[in-house]
Automatic annotation (TrEMBL):
Keyword flag Nucleotide-binding: yes
Protein source organism: Polyrhizophydium stewartii
Keyword terms: ATP-binding, Nucleotide-binding
Gene3D superfamilies: Transferase(Phosphotransferase) domain 1
Compositionally biased tracts (Polar residues): 603-612
Source organism superkingdom: Eukaryota
Chain sites annotated for binding ATP: K773
Matches recorded under PROSITE patterns: PROTEIN_KINASE_ATP
Region of interest: Disordered: 171-198, 214-240, 596-621, 665-690
InterPro entries membership: Kinase-like_dom_sf, Meiotic_Drive_Suppr_Kinase, Protein_kinase_ATP_BS
Protein's name in the database: Protein kinase domain-containing protein
Length: 911
């Protein structure tokens, strides 16, 4: 029997090594599947690698921005932290070695059980067999596992890294290093271990192999030497003792691959090899030390204990910059979602805050391919360890697309609960489901959970909306022409009500925006367990570019009431009516953004209707207003009336549209006008724009002296543009107008500029006035390069943000095939007085002092802001900037600026 087990074990050793070598020919079917799937994924992943890197980049920038708020310029240490983030992130990637890890893990678990059985049969562990097996497997596959230290470079090895820099690859295939024992070798006490080991020793050694990377290794090469295995063993004794229930994860075996990927990312981040001074040894050591020490883990465990004591208190974060929080909060492309959820126990273990045991029955969660989740093998988080963690792990796996059997409600509910547990309070959510869909994930609802540290995680759910609101019968939400239908919109709203209800149950603070075939934006705010969801917002954005938060309820009400039938499709008028009300809200004196932002939003909303599109001309605006007018009027029709408060809202909304779009010169309608007898019917009957009713709100003739629409669009209306009577004075006012509406993280407004890259729009980014430059990657082959360059330069100039350079608020992968650069928004100087010129010159000099030439000095690339009562000139558009301290070129840039400014001034004066 012993001999049989021994043979089996040997066989497994061989298999495992084959997995590691990607030699699948003679693998068992099971393992072959794992490897094949991994390969398939790799190619798919490879296709989106660039996008993914950009997405990653975006996250890093976000993170870095926050980090740098408190810290000055980047230095080696910080780069290391970023590296650490990369490493964390890469652990999740399907095409990283995670699957291999899982396969290994499974193998190792199997090994352990074999060994245990063997030990049980023999009465005591037969150490010699373990040692013999390991020695044999080691002999069979001397190079099966690369020495991870080969990839761990020290500063001294930077030159060697630089040699690989051009290709962005590290050669990990050949090594002359002594072989680090494979996971199995270690698990079986093998390798060059001479003294026999028991199972715990094996686990220890296994863990030690994890820590092999944390030693003071050197990169391979003429001057570097890997640590002899004996040294690694020496480190073992210092490690904490692990029990036999510890998951055996051979992180070092995956490090070569991880490190290679990370090198690509860092290359992406830093571009310039001279700046690359990352001590990987230290970085990896940090990561591993963290895993080992449980330092992060203990924080978490404390938090979770707290939470358990005081349900449903939210988990307070001990340190948001570390471990799991980071790992899970790094933007997770949809594709990786599966891995995240499937491997959560492993990840949890990696964060070192939960015991993982294979003592409990294995979970039967299945993935969408119907097979057993590989994360189950040998590693199930026990409820005993912590029920919260257990719930998280289990729910995420079962809820997120993995368990087809569970009812949708259950899935959503469990998922949200799990998220609440995991993230505690979440906020600020913007997602475009299309973005996910385009990347191969079918989903109806996408959340981007913003964790307290600002990281984000996309969670996608295929809700089959119909299931939620129509007793399991799916309903199309668009008709054959792709038009969004009213009754379906109602259904969607109802279904989201359900979702929001679950959120409320979970104590989440979540806003949601999601895209359907046509853009649909929904949002809700939930406070504690009291949902404040009384209405939803819905908009179809014709450009497909913008996200707006608009009043759905009103829209729907207006639509059905005015047109009689619910089947009527929403059209632009409906939507614009919605925008008008949103504008009204935004203009309210108490809107959370303050007036200025609100005005911008309002302008964004209303000027949206003004765009050059044939449907957004002045006539269209007129008809919008008429439409609202009619709606209000209809409320007073004898048998089909709108509630008075809705009518009032309509009135206000129309007035705001008129006011904001400067068509209100003869605005005479008072708020109580709809009460006038006879008003409604006639207005309703005559829906043309030329209603000769004196109550018509539109200016009857367009002021010929008024600037053309395209110019007007750029103006931010002043508060004075909104009649006093129309302004909301209190939050209650605003909420009464449109209950439930609150600003969200990103408002994208009208176009404010255009360049080679694409279109720049005004935006509100987390309440700040911003400009979002959207770059469609496929439009121009160098777009990606330009984008990277520009972001890179912004980063280089981070110490001048808000002083001489516009702050880079965010950047990264956007929906569709585009990337965005979001910067703080300023305004151009119209007349370029001498004082502005001097400000701009001073800012330019600051940039020069940083060793950078702007490269595209032009008046349009300077915007002005007022901060601390001080006017500042901020430079934008760094796509053509370059590193140079050439004083001649610097002088040239300054004189060019002066020339540009003075010609604009002269032109202005002559006009
Ligand atoms: N932060 C900002 N604040 C205000 N306006 C901005 C901002 N960023 C960009 N814009 C507007 O958008 C225009 C185009 O932006 P930018 O120059 O960055 O784009 P581009 O595609 O690189 O243009 P170009 O081809 O001219 O280099 C600017 O001239 C400016 O009017």
């Amino acid at each position: 029997m012993l001999e049989k087990l021994n043979n089996q074990q040997r066989h497994l050793s061989a298999l495992q090594n084959q997995v590691l070598r990607n030699d699948t020919a003679s693998l068992s079917e099971d393992l072959q599947q794992v490897v094949n799937r991994r390969r398939a994924n790799s190619s798919r992943e490879a296709q989106r690698e660039t996008d993914y890197l950009i997405a990653l980049f975006c996250q890093f920038v976000d993170w870095r921005n926050r980090y740098r708020e408190k810290n000055p310029l980047p230095d080696t240490e910080r780069q290391e932290v970023e590296f650490f983030l990369c490493l964390c992130q890469k652990l999740f990637e399907p095409n990283s070695s995670i699957r291999e890890l899982l396969a290994l893990q499974r193998m190792a678990a199997f090994h352990r059980s074999l060994a245990e059985r063997k030990a049980a049969e023999a009465g005591s562990p037969d150490r010699s067999i373990l040692a013999a097996n390991a020695a044999q497997s080691s002999a069979q596959q001397p190079h099966a596992v690369q020495d991870s230290s080969a990839e761990i470079v020290t500063d001294g090895a930077a030159a060697q890294l630089a040699a690989h820099w051009e290709t962005g690859e590290m050669d990990v295939s050949a090594t002359e290093e002594p072989v680090t024992p494979s996971v199995q070798d270690v698990a079986t006490g093998g390798g060059e271990q001479e003294s026999p080991m028991d199972i715990d020793d094996a686990a220890k050694a296994s863990h030690a192999s994890v820590f092999a990377a944390s030693g003071p290794h050197h990169a391979r090469g003429a001057t570097s030497h890997g640590p002899p295995p004996q040294q690694t063993r020496g480190a073992v004794d210092k490690q904490r003792t692990l029990s036999s229930t510890d998951v055996v994860m051979d992180i070092p075996s995956s490090l070569p691959q991880l490190a290679r990927e990370i090198v690509v990312i860092v290359k992406y981040l830093y571009g310039n090899k001279k700046e690359f001074r990352v001590d990987l040894t230290k970085t990896v050591a940090n990561l591993l030390a963290m895993i080992e020490s449980d330092s992060v883990g203990s924080d978490w465990i404390e938090c979770i204990r707290e939470r358990r004591k005081n349900r449903p208190a939210l988990i307070a974060r001990a340190d948001h910059t570390k471990a799991l929080d980071l790992q899970l909060s790094v933007m997770t492309p949809a594709h990786s979602l599966h891995s995240v959820f499937k491997t959560l126990p492993v990840v949890v273990k990696a964060a070192g805050y939960v015991e993982i045991s294979d003592d409990v029955p294995q979970d039967s969660a299945t993935d969408d391919a119907g097979e057993r989740s590989s994360s189950n093998a040998g590693s199930v988080v026990t409820p005993a360890a912590d029920d919260a963690i257990w719930l998280i792990s289990k729910s995420l796996r079962t809820a997120c697309l993995l368990d087809k059997e569970a009812g949708i409600k259950e899935r959503v509910r469990v998922l949200l609960k799990a998220i609440a547990l995991l993230f505690g309070q979440t906020s600020g959510v913007v997602a475009e489901a299309d973005w996910l869909r385009n990347r191969g994930l079918k989903c109806d609802l996408a959340f981007v959970l913003t964790t307290p540290n600002g990281g984000q995680m996309i969670v996608a759910i295929e809700t089959k909306l119909g299931d939620l609101f129509n007793s399991g019968k799916p309903q199309p939400i668009v008709d054959s022409k792709g038009i969004f239908k009213t009754e379906d919109a109602i259904g969607i709203v109802n279904s989201y009500n359900q979702v929001f209800h679950y959120m409320a149950e979970s104590g989440l603070h979540v806003s949601v925006i999601t895209n359907f075939t046509q853009t649909v934006a929904l949002r809700s705010r939930i406070d504690g367990n009291e949902p404040l969801v009384t209405s939803f917002d819905c908009v179809e954005d014709p450009s497909g570019q913008a996200l707006f938060v608009l009043p759905y309820t009103l829209l729907n009400e207006v639509c059905t009431q005015t047109h009689g039938k619910a089947e009527r499709n929403f059209d632009q008028h409906d939507l614009d009516g919605g925008r008008a009300v949103a504008a009204q809200f935004a203009l309210s004196a108490d809107n959370p953004f303050g007036y200025e932002h609100g005005a911008m939003t309002a302008q964004g909303g209303s000027s949206h209707t003004q765009r050059a599109s044939p449907r957004y001309d002045r006539d269209s605006q007129r008809s919008i207003t008429s439409f609202l007018h009619d709606g209000a009027a209809q409320s007073h029709a004898s048998d089909n009336s709108l509630p008075a408060d809705i009518a009032k809202q309509l009135l206000k909304a129309a007035q705001v549209v008129a006011a904001v779009t400067r068509q209100s010169t003869d605005l005479t309608m008072a708020e109580d006008e709809p009460d006038s007898p006879g008003h409604g019917r006639s207005a309703m009957q005559d829906t043309s724009h030329a209603v000769s009713d004196q109550r018509l709100w539109m200016a009857r003739s367009v002021d010929p002296a008024a600037p053309p629409d395209c110019l007007r669009m750029r103006e931010v209306p002043s508060l004075a543009a909104v009649p006093e009577a129309l302004r909301c004075k209190t939050v209650d006012d605003a909420l009464r107008l449109e209950p439930g509406i609150k600003p969200i993280d990103i408002f994208v407004g009208s176009e404010i500029g255009a360049g080679r890259f694409g279109v720049v729009r005004e935006a509100l980014f987390q309440g700040l006035p911003a400009a979002i430059k959207r770059i469609v990657l496929h439009l121009y082959e160098h777009n990606q390069e330009l984008y990277r360059h520009e972001v890179h330069m912004y980063l280089r100039l981070c110490c001048l943000w808000g002083v001489a350079v516009a702050t880079l608020l965010s950047c990264g992968m956007d929906c569709h095939d585009s990337v965005s650069i979001i910067t703080e928004r300023g305004s151009h100087s119209e007349t370029w007085p001498e004082s502005d010129v001097e400000l701009a010159v001073a800012s330019l000099k600051e940039i020069h002092r940083m060793g950078i030439l702007h490269g595209d000095v032009h008046a349009k690339n300077v915007v002005f802001v007022v901060k601390d009562n001080e006017r500042r000139a901020l430079w934008i558009d760094f796509e053509r900037s370059e590193f140079s301290s050439d004083t001649h070129k610097q002088r040239k840039e300054i004189s060019r600026l002066r020339k540009c400014a003075s010609s604009i001034r002269q032109k202005f004066e002559s006009e």
